[in-house]
Amino acid sequence: MAEASCSGGTPFKQFLDQQNRDVSHHQDRLFHNSFSPAQSSFRSSPANQPAQVQNDFGAFMNGSSSQFGSAPLQHPHHAAGMLPGHPQAFESRWHPSAPSPQVEMAQQPRSADMSNWAADFTRFSSQQQAPAHPMAVNGAAQPLAHMQSNHQAPALNFQSAFQFPNAGFSPLYGPTNGGLMDPSAAAAQRPAAEADFDQEMSRWMEANGPASNAKAMEDVDAIMEQMARELDINEGAFKDSETATPLHQDPRFTDLETPEIRNLTPDTLSQTINNEPQVDQVKPRSEISEAAEKLLDTVQNEQGEKWKNSVFLSLMRDFRDGKKDIVDNEVQVMPYPSAEETEGGLCSPR
Amino acid sequence: MASMLEFRTQGFNPYAVKYSPYYDSRIAVASSANFGIVGNGRLFALGLSAQGIQVEKTFDTNDALYDLAWSEINENQLVVACGDGSIKLFDLGVNDFPVMNFHEHKRETFAVCWNPVTKDSFVSSSWDGTVKIWSPTRNQSITTLPIGNCTYSTSFCPSNPALISAASTDSHLRIYDLRTPPSAKYHLVSSIPVHAPQTLPGAPAQPASAPAEILTQDWNKYRDTVIATGGVDRVIRTFDIRNPAGGALSVMPGHDYAVRKLAWSPHASDVLISASYDMTVRLWSDGSMQPAMNPNGGPSVGRQLGVMNRHTEFATGVDWCLFGMGGWVASVGWDERVLLWDSNMLMAGR
């Protein structure tokens, strides 16, 4: 009896007691699984995750990590990014028949980038990689079904961190792809790959190397001379048109009241600025003004003393009438337009 | 009307008031400058003394304050919901600055509630469409519950620490059970369409009302499956969460404008109090203590026990005192006033 109510007398018995203890009540704890990344609320994975992880790793080993490179880095505990609007959206996200969002991302064609040196190498390596690694995706050309048959599981997020431009043959990371590829297979591929690489590199240097740069520099002088000639021609044509058609007759460039820029003096400049507020007249009302108007419309039938004396409603009236506005995160009094300004069409604050 | 204790929150418009769960003489008020439209916030910690209501401490914040909750585990601490999306934990023993800052919500945090059972966590809801559960000891949220639209109110069940309710703009009252696996519906166990037509077997269908935003909700303190809601449609309704499709148990029409805040009495199972944009605070009985009056099986119509009409601006917050004989309430409004009064005077004719 004493033994049942007290803890075990030996460390081994304590260990057995610990093992035999019923821990099912722990599952009812409030935050029973909130701290476990595998079960955390927003990025929890399907139940068969271990097998998928193995598939992912196999896919990665097969050099297809670049397939998943376009998948955005996702934050496992961040809620806001998971809010398309309704819980149903979240249900379908993990429905067994629903395709993985990351697979969908990988299925989207990737536009070929022809703009730089690295892209040339990527293209080259993809062309070389395709026959050697049937499972590897050649960018946009890879069929969708292939992807689905081999990579149903979502990609592991860490793969985006290992986004090599050409996983199998990268000269930067070595033929073993940073040690992740089988060394024997890599050794077998190395001679052919290096020969192709040298050939492609020499071709590229031919097109973009120092020789082509020198030729390009020679061409620059000729281009500059041609541009100067075209500029002279254009200036001459503009002067001819200016003398033939006076500017004040062209309504697109000026009007009678607006002086030309070269004739502006400080007086005419200020006059011009004073005429500008024509734009302010059509300036849309502020958001707070419109909201205040709607609110006041709602309570317009209230005649009680409380409603008449309400400070809040008074503020709303000021917002509606433009007497107050929110400027720089403060409620500010806007000056009243004077009679002369109103007659002159000036409604903007001074 | 009975005498009242009054305090002025000069320059700040109160949004919420809460009695301390530890002291009958301590009250906190969350307030905002410029009616919460723009500007700072101020938290008032008030004490009742023989000289009336006096300030114990104030804390200023950079943004408006919309709600507050006293800590259930530390009598000197409380959290406030800020307009910048943050939640701040203040300690009355520490001047000026919060002791913790929790900032994950992307938009205004509009409600906070401390877990009254386990006392080790609190919950917040925001206009960003999420409800978050926090521990006061860590900056990152423990769990995020997706709602999908503005959530004005959230609270823990007073008897079960795993149940959380949330009221939002889509006219739904949602119930989350943290004991359920998160993978199903992110703990969502019930979604009650507040304005849906009532469907009862063998009874004529009740007409639906137009969907409207739900601004406030509260758990009954005695019947732990009953929740009351109030909102833009001006009607207070009670629901049994065990029967989500069953419609309202009772309805309490009477407010002239939206119901901004309601709270069940801690002393009577059928009494609740509400604050409204019609500038009144009203006391209600939901009729649950009376025999069923509606032969068709529809919702019973609650009874208005009294109206407190002293506020001269929108009444925004109300709370019951937990101590004493019961019946003392605190109400706040945008008239910069905190009023403490005995609701027993209104219930005299009950």
From TrEMBL, chain A:
Organism: Bionectria ochroleuca
Entry superkingdom: Eukaryota
Region Disordered, annotated ranges: 36-113
Protein name according to UniProt: Peroxin 20
Skewed-composition ranges (Low complexity): 36-47
TrEMBL record, chain B:
Keywords, sorted A to Z: Cytoplasm, Peroxisome, Protein transport, Transport, WD repeat
Domain of life: Eukaryota
Cited PROSITE patterns: WD_REPEATS_2 (PS50082), WD_REPEATS_REGION (PS50294)
WD repeats: 102-144, 252-285
InterPro entries (UniProt xref): PEX7 (IPR044536), WD40/YVTN_repeat-like_dom_sf (IPR015943), WD40_repeat_dom_sf (IPR036322), WD40_rpt (IPR001680)
Coiled coil: none
Cell compartments where the protein resides: Cytoplasm, Cytosol; Peroxisome matrix
Membrane spanning residue stretches: none
Major subcellular site: cytoplasm
Family stated for the protein in its record: Belongs to the WD repeat peroxin-7 family.
Protein's name according to its UniProt entry: Peroxin-7
Species annotation: Bionectria ochroleuca
Higher taxonomy: Eukaryota, Fungi, Dikarya, Ascomycota, Pezizomycotina
